[in-house]
Amino acid sequence: MLNMAEGVVRLGALAASPVVATLADAFARAGHDLAIVGGPVRDALLGRETNDLDFTTDALPDAILRIVKPVSTAQWDIGRAFGTIGAKVAGEQVEITTYRADSYDGVTRKPTVEFGDTLEGDLVRRDFTVNSMALRVPSSTLLDPTGGIEDLVAQRLRTPADPAVSFGDDPLRMLRAARFAAQLGFDVDASTIAAMAALRATLSIVSPERIQGELVRLLQTDDPVRGIRLLVETGLMEEFLPEIPALRLEVDEHHHHKDVYEHSLTVLRQAIELEQARNPDASPDVALRLAALLHDIGKPATRKLERGGGVTFYHHDTKGARLARKRLQQLRFDSDTITVVSRLIELHLRFFGYAEGAWTDSAVRRYVRDAGAGLERLHILTRADVTTRNAKKAGRLARAYDDIERRIAELSAQEELEAMRPELDGNRIQEVLGIPPGRDVGEAYRFLLDLRLDEGMIGEDEAERRLRAWWGARG
């Protein structure tokens, strides 16, 4: 709940910080206005941590650069065409933008950049009222022309202008609504939701890279489920990640299975809780969170209704991995993220075989080898995938996973399991068998790797003997 008295104190502290005081003095001496704008003001009022500082001014870009050079250690003007100059002041990175009064062509979402004359005019063109407040410095005067404070108190997300106009100007703002709803824990007002649903198709003019960026920022919040629900309910998710709404499978009175959509959201929440518990100081693990959200997207395509009321989803793990890879490529995710996510989805069912009967050491080694660098993520995803309300079953699965992690740790200590390699490398294989580089060396390497996985370390001499015997048996 917003406490205005405390919020005012925090705004005062923000205005008095070294970086703000330095810039405020420099712009005032140059005869120009300066104000902190957007997120930093909102977060200070809410008592949230303030990270990047954004400023706006009546000064044009050339003047901004001229003013900040004497008080900064670095400057960059990559955003000069949009009126933005970046600088490093008092050890902090800041961006300062000339008042804007953009117009949009409705085709490319790229604005026609027009510089404005007033701070009020700049604020009313922004995305949401809670981001449309500014703190003039050095006077520490709060400006709120669109009712942002009232919306902070009401925990409501609303556009400053008619939402149809705002989203028509820039459809990406609809995805930002979902992100801010999750980040702030706010509800989106009814007219804004209606506009999102009505204008969902306009998202087609937004580049995949920008959509991906907003999806990542949503997943980086502590509870992205609120935003995901909003995207699904308005139909926006259908436009760029249709596999998620497709999880809402119909359930008839004769064939019963858990709600896959709700299950996936629960898995995502549980994965985040485990991630934060195991790695409390780490940045949000987007690849893990994507895998948790997408882990069952192969189910709609593999669902089979059986006689007697059963439902099966055979091979939904491998199908889901392929679907995820294709969709993440379309959203321009990097190759490492795509590989990690698709591999986690492919492996997410592997553990349940362990729960049904203890594995041999060989099976545990293969589990570790197949998971590779994603083993810790696989631990989290597999544990999070248990959403049963049957306490007895949940306890049994938790104990089984405790056991497999214990065995992995023991085998790792004994055999350096993470560095799983045959005891003879490719060069030694060629020497022992007297063969040149080629496919035969690769097959010999795989034979030795399987041997290592099945029996552990057997020593180089024994490995050579087995290799010669295998080679001789090949004729």
From TrEMBL:
Highest taxon of source: Bacteria
Keyword flag Oxidoreductase: no
Residues of the HD domain: 260-404
InterPro entries: HD/PDEase_dom (IPR003607), HD_domain (IPR006674), HDIG_dom (IPR006675), NT_sf (IPR043519), PolA_pol_head_dom (IPR002646), PolyA_RNA-bd (IPR032828), tRNA_adenylyltransferase (IPR014065), tRNA_CCA-adding_enzyme (IPR050124)
Keywords assigned: ATP-binding, Magnesium, Metal-binding, Nucleotide-binding, Nucleotidyltransferase, RNA repair, RNA-binding, Transferase, tRNA processing
Source species: Microbacterium deminutum
Cofactor: Mg(2+)
Identification of the protein by name: CCA tRNA nucleotidyltransferase
Gene3D superfamilies, per the entry: Beta Polymerase, domain 2, cca-adding enzyme, domain 2
